[in-house]
Amino acid sequence: MRRGWLGSHPSFVGKLELSPGLTTMGVVSSFIRSVLAIALLLGAVWCSFNVPLGERTFAEHMDRIGQTPEAVELIEGSRQTVSPMIEEATHRVLGEYVEAPTSLAQEPTHVNTVPETAGPPKASGRLPRAHTIQP
User: Fold this and answer.
1) Given a cut of 60, is residue 108 above it in pLDDT?
2) Residue 72 in contact with residue 65, Cβ under 8 Å?
């Protein structure tokens, strides 16, 4: 029975042909495509900030459009709609609001802190020597 990435489940055996793996050419072409995509993205960003389209660059046009009253109203309306959804998703993921500490506390300030002397003695971290163990 041939075992593929889907395992040897009876419904998949013999019905699915899997490639044996990536070839060197596949890895190289994937890398080249990724590099080209990143280069195109960086080129587009550079052009939007440096190539003038009339009096201004593309980024300056977008900035001016974003400052119009209609755009400001759209952004505020979107924030009012999206903010409750984000807060609900955050509450579902985190469970409750927990503020992260901004600095390390020197001593715990909890009321129910157990003193170090309570409980059994702490082990020294070393095992006893063989001649000191009593049978």
Assistant:
1) no
2) no
